Amino acid sequence: MPVTTGLSPAERSYLYTSLSQSIRPDFRSLTTFRPQTFQTDILPTANGSARVRWGGAVGAAVAGGVSGAGVGEVIVGVKAEIGPSQLLDDGSGRKGGLVNVNVEITPNADPNTTRDDDPLPTLLSTFLSQTLIPAAIPSTALTLGPERAWHIYIDCAILSTSGHPLPALSLAVRLAMMTTRLPRVTLTSDIDREAAQVASTGGTNIREAVIDLDIDDDWDAATPIPGVENLGVVSIANVVGRAVFFDAAPGEEEVCDARVAVAVGADGDVVGVRMFGGAKGVGPEMVKEAVKAAQLVGVEVVKGSSQGLESSHDTGGFFAIM
Hints:
By secondary structure, the protein is α+β, with helices and mostly antiparallel strands. It is 24% helix and 31% strand.
């Protein structure tokens, strides 16, 4: 989702020089985020949901629209169903549950979303479903007996943007998953029900147990998704010269040498890295520095969102994260 601000060559040169000296047009520090708020439990028919807003004007306005004006907004809803367990693709023969992430970008957020070949929705859903989420919630944690498992469907809508949506989207997914509750399921076995199906082979009776799932409709007894407390976020480290900064406004994104998306677990471990964008690229040492900085920022975002969830318990208002 390239966001262009119509910067002239002179403005781009000035902005690049300023950022390389750790001077941002809105006077933020390299790790200071623009206003970022969230709201949970916004979709009554979902098992869990969240809205995250970020961006807006910070400090003085700057020519070329690089001051950070404009608010981004994403909404995530989580639905949970019980379905057949899925054979894992690791060759182990084990089975597990399913986590499916679908990302839609509205035309208001990006007019190019009408193109069938727009790669961004796939990039976002793949990075979340194959990198960030499995590191916290393995498929085997979603099993319910030998043949049944939870299927978790995460539907994401990007309503507007104020910079790359991946960090805010990952945060909204974390908040929605943290507030998701699954009905309590009890497994029961009754081999006597197969008495009529007993087969006799060589004088040996073979009886096959029936596994039933007893689903509790008392939502007060519902439980969180197993392992969800380990779910982290994605931070994007933006590199200009030797400067590494975060929450880039659209104008700042245009002049980056490189951008590094880093998936960070709740425990601070780096679980995935992806390079994208940038006009020049950077060397391996600078990439390491960017990953380390993104790791620290990711931990702070996780901490802030967890504290915000505690503060927002049983309320429906917006709460600040960073």
